Amino acid sequence: MLGVQGLELRRSTKPKQTETTQRWKFEVRALGATLPLHTRVEFSRRGSAEEYVLEPVRPEVVRPYAMLAPTANHYTARAAVRQKIEALAGRAETQARDVWDLEHLLRTTGVNPGPFTAAQRKIFAPGLDRAMGLPFDVFKAQVVPYLAPEHQEIYGTPEAWAQICELVVDRLSELAP
C-alpha cells in the first residue's frame, strides 16, 4: 500500500510490546522528499467495554502522507472522553497529555460522555483538582515538543495552557453528577 502511494518504509521499531499495548514507530520516506516522515501505530488490548467503531482514518490525519486512509477500530468520542477523565483522575502521576487530549475532545466533538456509573462519578473531584494543579512547565515539557511548529507557537504559552485547563475544569464541572 505504501509503494503505490510513492512511500517507502525505511525503518521501524517496537518501543512497546506488552500484553495490553503494542506500539510501533515508523520512518517513511516519500519519493523525492529529503526529510523522512515519522509516525506511529498503537494498539490497545485492554478488554474495555467502551464503545468503538470501525471506520476509515480521518482524511486530515493521512493527508500529509498523501496516502489512502486505512480502516481501523477506534473508540468513539464519547468513550475517549470517559477514558481521559478516568486517566486524569486515576494515574499515579498526572500527565499533561490527559488534560490536552481532554480539552481537544471536549472542544472538537461536543460529546456528552454521560451517563456515568457510581465509580466514574467518584473520580470527578480528583480529576478537577489535577487539571487545575498542573503547572505550565509540565505541559511545556510533556506536550509542546510533540506539536507541529505552528501549533507550538499558538499553544506553547502559559496563557494558552491556562485557557486549556480552564476549559477542562469548566466542562468537567458541568458534567459532574
Write up this protein.
This protein has 8 helices and 5 strands, in the order ββββαβααααααα. The protein is α+β, with helices and mostly antiparallel strands. It has helices spanning 59-62, 77-90, 96-109, 118-121, 124-133, 136-142, 149-155, 158-175; strands at residues 7-17, 21-30, 37-44, 52-56, 71-75. The model has no long low-confidence stretch (mean pLDDT 84). The radius of gyration is 18 Å and the shape is globular. A hairpin with a 3-residue loop joins strand 1 (7-17) and strand 2 (21-30). It has 2 domains: 3-75, no CATH class; 77-175, no CATH class. The strands form 2 sheets. A 3-stranded antiparallel β-sheet has the order 1-2-3, with no helix packed on it. It has a two-stranded antiparallel ribbon with strand order 4-5. It starts with 6 loop residues before the first strand and ends with a helix.
Q: Quick one: how many beta strands?
A: 5
Strand order of the largest sheet: 1-2-3
What is the end-to-end distance? 47 Å
Helix fraction?
40-55%
- The share of residues in extended strands comes to 15-25%
Low-pLDDT residue spans: none
